[in-house]
Every structure is written in structure tokens, then in C-alpha cells.
Amino acid sequence: MNSARDLRIAVVGAGLGGLACARVLQLHGRSVTVFEGDASADARPQGGTLDLHVGTGQSALRAAGLLDRFRALSRPEGQEWRLLDPATAAVLPDQSPPDDFGDDKPEIDRGQLRGLLLESLTAGSVRWDRAVSGVTPLGDGTGRVHFGDGSAEDFDLVIGADGARSRVRPALSDAVPGYTGVSLVEAGFDDCDNRHADLARRVGPGTMMAKAGAGALFAQRNGNGHIRVYAAFRAPEDWHLAAGVELGDTAAVRAHLLTRYDGWDERLLALLRDNDGGFINRPVFALPVPHLWEHVPGVTLLGDAAHLMPPLGVGANLALLDGTDLAHALLTEPGVDDAVRAYEGVMLPRSAEAAKGCAEGLEHLLPPTGA
């Protein structure tokens, strides 16, 4: 049997949770290989801004030895929320003052955080352009990783950290993400402090939101003078087909959205009228709640692969905590299977509770009845 330091551990997916797991293992002298289908770290955009909470995401970064570097990059002022009246664009009363936040959940761009984790790993730890097509538990406590090119490698543990459409998940569960009934349409504004100064002042340093019935508009300050906007509404997943709208037709998508938000203040409609570039359709999917599976030796999941939930500020935090918790279990438990059982015994009930809360939060934010 391999010694603890000779174990072959594979992480599938170079997202936040998988990288955090790899970082903690390497901090303690353990070998780990991360497989990622993207050709490089900057092959595609990495998404918007994240708020990292003290008890979850920040706790994970402390375990990874990266908390101070995170704090140097983060934006505590990004915690500010402004709720606006959709009819007048006036800021509603009882908003938190901008100096009332501390370090409870400062914001950081996801790309910055991922870069911080990647830089912390030993060179060559991430195998880029190595797409995984599936995983087979071998029945002896190990797992076989199948790659898109037809090759395969065996490992003592395969960790599925490959997100919503995980190729590892089917080795443990038949569950697939389902549409929540909510769609987001993303837009963006660049160089906001100069080219879109009025918008920048209205949004402030954090997040601005206006909502009415089953529709809402969000605008979030990101790094480098970028503001990311989301139109959120309840609709069938194929809403654009029913509306006769081609998603690549910026003018048609804009016209449809302006119709959806008809009657809102023009200063809010400018979020949809004046954006730089086009629109990106992002239907919101989630795994069943709770998402559980019978333990299978040699394979486990973390992050969205294990508990995809609506994007209400929880998922990235849990992914980071999953990764460091799993690494800690592998470092302290007597064997791999003991470690995975201990990890799953904590992670599964924790994620089920969080996913239930996110599902309820989405219904509160955008009621199915539009009430």
C-alpha cells in the first residue's frame, strides 16, 4: 500500500475549490495533479466579483496560507448594497453606510482569486488542455480518469472539482442540474469612472439592485473600472425562442429587455440601453436539494460538482471550504477512504442546508408568482 506521501491524487477542474485543495496538500508536502480542459489560465473570462465570508471562504484561504494576500487584493468597500426604487431610481432608506463593513465579506474578482491560487501552486501542477471525459471507480478503492484523447490514468483518489456539468459526478450520482425558472442576462460597462461616471456614482463601490415582481436589475462594481450588470427574471429557459430573439443579436435582445422592464426609471434602463458590447444569457441551474450519494471509494466531489446552487454569494465560499476540508482530512485521517468518508460526512449536510437556503432566497428575491 502506498505511503501517505506517495498517494496519487487527481483533481479534475482548475476552479477555486480544486485549486484550494491542491494548495493545502502541497503546503504539507503531498503530491497532487490538477487536470483542466482549458488550454491556459486565461483561455476564457473567469466571471464577476465574489464576496468571501469570514467563516467559509476566508477560513479556507487562511488554511491555504493566502489570507493576507487575499486581503491586499480585496475590496472591503464592495460590501455596500444600494436598493433603488425601480420607478424613480431613488435610493431607498435604511441602506448600510459605506464605512460599516470591516472584513466580514470583502469582494474580489473571481479571476484575481483564481490567479492567486494558481500562483501558489508548484509549477506544472496544473495540466492544461487535458479534458476529462469520465471517471470509473475500479472497485479496489482507486479511480480511473478517462481523457478526451482516449487515454486513461489511475489514481488513489479522484476529486471532481469540475463544476456544474461535472464529468466526474456520474461516477457517484445520476443527478443533473435542473433549471430554476430564473434567467440572468449579463451586460457590462468598461472604464466606468471616466466613460460612465454617472452610472459609477449611482452604483457606488459595491452592488446596486432594483426589483419589482419577478424581475430585478443588478449592477456590481468589479475591479479595473468594470461594472457588471445582470437582468434577472422568471421565464421559461427558452424565453428567447418564444420571443423570437436571437441571442447573438444585441439590438433584438436589448429591445426585448427594455420591454420587460417597461415603466422603470430611464436611469435604470440605461443599464440595458448603453452597455458596452453585447449580452450573455445565463439561465440559472441547480442540483436537487439535498444532493446526496452513496460513498464510492476512490472518488468524491466538491464545489458546484457536488452542490450547484443559485448564485447568492454562497457557492464559491463553500467550494473553497470543501477543498481545504478535504485536504485536511487527507492529511489527518489514517487512510484515503477514511478521509473521504470524514469529509463527505461534514460537506454533504452542510451543503444541503446552504442549498436549501439559496433556493428559498431565490424565491424570495424573484417570487414565482411575481407577487
Structure description:
This protein is of the alpha/beta class and 371 residues long. The chain has two domains: 224 residues, FAD/NAD(P)-binding domain (3-Layer(bba) Sandwich), CATH 3.50.50.60; 107 residues, 2-Layer Sandwich (D-Amino Acid Oxidase, Chain A, domain 2), CATH 3.30.9.30. Helix content is 33%, strand content 23%. The protein has twelve helices and 16 strands. The strands form four sheets. Strands 4-12-13-14-11-15 form a six-stranded mixed beta sheet, with helices on one face. Strands 6-2-1-10-16 form a five-stranded parallel beta sheet, with helices on one face. A three-stranded antiparallel beta sheet has the order 7-8-9, with no helix packed on it.
Low-confidence stretches: none
Q: Please identify, by name, the CATH architecture of the largest domain.
A: 3-Layer(bba) Sandwich
Basic shape: globular
- What is the H level of CATH, i.e. the homologous superfamily of the largest domain? FAD/NAD(P)-binding domain
| Overall CATH class of the largest domain | Alpha Beta
Our estimate of the beta-strand percent is 15-25%
Instruction: Return the structural class.
Output: alpha/beta
Discrete helix count: 12
User: What is the arithmetic mean of pLDDT?
Assistant: 94
Q: What's the Cα radius of gyration?
A: 21 Å
Question: What's the short version?
Answer:
It is built from twelve helices and 16 strands. The protein has 371 residues and is α/β, with parallel strands linked by helices. The protein is globular, with a radius of gyration of 21 Å.
